[in-house]
Amino acid sequence: MAIMKTVSEETKKNAIDLMVAMVVDELAEEMRLDPTDLLSCFITSRTGRLLYDESSKLWWSGPSDIAEMYKAEWKNAEVRCGL
């Protein structure tokens, strides 16, 4: 975990934002949804909130893993967000 000491808070936040963009792009393509609509839905989901919780370290996972978590959440009807 030595790398965590050398990564600034701003860099972490930028990495998380980039991960969100990559996940939403992947999901939008797979689910055939508008990425703009999906973005707000993703961010307010359990998966999105967990991604922004730095202590979860979910942002260290790949975008496909995070997308799978969100799809499982979607499938279980935990999230619909009007889409």
Give structural notes.
- By secondary structure, the protein is an all-alpha fold.
- It is 70% helix and 0% strand.
- The protein has helices at residues 2-6, 9-31, 35-44, 46-52, 63-75.
- The chain starts with a helix and ends in an 8-residue tail after the last helix.
- The mean pLDDT is 87.
Short description:
Helix content is about 70%, strand content about 0%. It has helices spanning about 1-5, 10-30, 35-45, 45-50, 65-75.
C-alpha-based Rg, rounded: 13 Å
Approximately how much helix is present in the residues? 55-70%
Averaging pLDDT over every residue, what do you get? 87
Number of strands: 0
Question: Helix-strand pattern, N to C?
Answer: HHHHH
Would you identify the regions where 5 or more consecutive residues have pLDDT less than 50?
A: none
Strand content: under 5%
Class by SSE composition: mainly alpha
Could you say which overall geometry the principal axes of the C-alpha atoms support?
globular
How far do the termini sit from each other?
39 Å
Describe the largest sheet.
none
| Domain unit count | 1
Count up the helices: 5
User: So what's the oligomer here?
Assistant: single chain
